[in-house]
Design brief:
- The protein has three helices and ten strands, in the order ββββββαβαβαββ.
- With about 140 residues, it is α/β, with parallel strands linked by helices.
- It has helices at about 70-80, 95-105, 120-125, and strands at about 5, 10-15, 20-25, 35, 40, 60, 85-90, 115, 130, 140.
- The protein has a single domain (about 5-140), classed as Glucose Oxidase, domain 1 (3-Layer(bba) Sandwich).
- Helices cover about 25% and strands about 25% of the residues.
């Protein structure tokens, strides 16, 4: 990977390691009413990435959006194997963290959640693939 770039360590909210194609959302997403946990597809008709599949991606979004029920939808998607491999946020979102922690506790499936700064988030926008390490470092390729 000649074009690999390592971004500094992010703030780890839920630890773990994961990698996959990078998908940066143009707007926040509520998992409740916005994600089909059975397919991993965005089902919010008003979302710019309506129809896109989140399964196995490293999902980057500025923040989550929505109710506390979003954590149960995310946990179910993690259980079903249709969730993102990891979530990278610009702003801490406790509801997303709860969904990931619940899935780890109930099903033993870890989905890392990290928070990056604005410059790292902008670097992610241009990347095609990302790997999240347990220390919060991110390796991206274009």
């Amino acid at each position: 990977m000649d074009d690999a770039v390592v971004l500094g360590a992010a703030r780890v909210l839920v630890g773990g390691e994961a990698g996959g194609p990078l998908l940066t959302l143009d707007e926040p997403l509520s998992f409740w009413g916005g994600l089909d946990s059975e397919t991993g597809a965005i089902i919010d008709h008003h979302h710019p990435q309506f129809g896109r599949c989140l399964t196995g991606t490293v999902l980057a979004m500025r923040a989550g959006r929505g109710s506390s029920s979003a954590s149960s939808v995310l946990a179910e998607a993690i259980r079903l194997g249709t969730a993102p491999a990891a979530i990278v946020l610009l702003e801490t979102d406790e509801i997303i963290v709860i969904g990931s922690v619940v899935a780890d506790e109930l099903y033993g499936i870890t989905m890392p959640v990290i928070v990056v700064d604005e410059s790292a988030f902008e670097e992610l926008r241009a990347a095609a693939h990302a790997v999240i390490r347990s220390d919060g470092s991110i390796t991206i390729t274009h």
